[in-house]
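Hi R.,

Here's the chain you asked about this morning:
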Amino acid sequence: EIKNMVPFEPFDFYIKRKLYIHNMGHATCAYLGDLMGLPYIYQAIDVADIRILVQNAMLESAQALSVKYGVPLNEIVLHITDLLHRFTNAALGDTCARVGGDPARKLSPADRIIGSSTLVLEQNITPAYIAVGAAAAVQRYIKEAGMESNMESAKQVLQEVSGLASDSPLATLILNMYERILSGATIADLRRAADEAKAATLS
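And here is the predicted structure, written out as tokens:
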């Protein structure tokens, strides 16, 4: 026995939960905060529509992880509730710039955003809310790389950084959200678009 050690099985679930729920939700919050020009995570998560998008993105991952690993969904949902509360902690001083830093790594095929989206799709769930965060991450990447903000740049990023063909289901979903960002959509507009995309898969 090791003092204070908490045994957990399957351990791969624990790793994926950290990456595809905690890290993905944190990054999504940061990139959406970027779109609004908000400096801190606690400010971003206090915006109702960002909160809804982040929470629902985390729930998409939670559903997929629950199915894949046979872990009760309620346990993961309680974990999400705790994480969202932690995101509101102003004392942490977490900035959107830091949390969303290195977008190339965070948009790579197996990392928090694209990796979680792929897992969700594998479980026949549409990552409508994660796609909004992905589109905002693409916008951050494009700006930092000095590229022109247009659809061709977005397709290039998804292909070269994320390994996604522009006509793949996931890229199509992300590009749809990115096009809305280019057209000046508000966070509320993006939330409504994600709601509609999700609802279309439930009928």
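One quick note: The two ends are 51 Å apart (CA to CA).

Cheers,
M.
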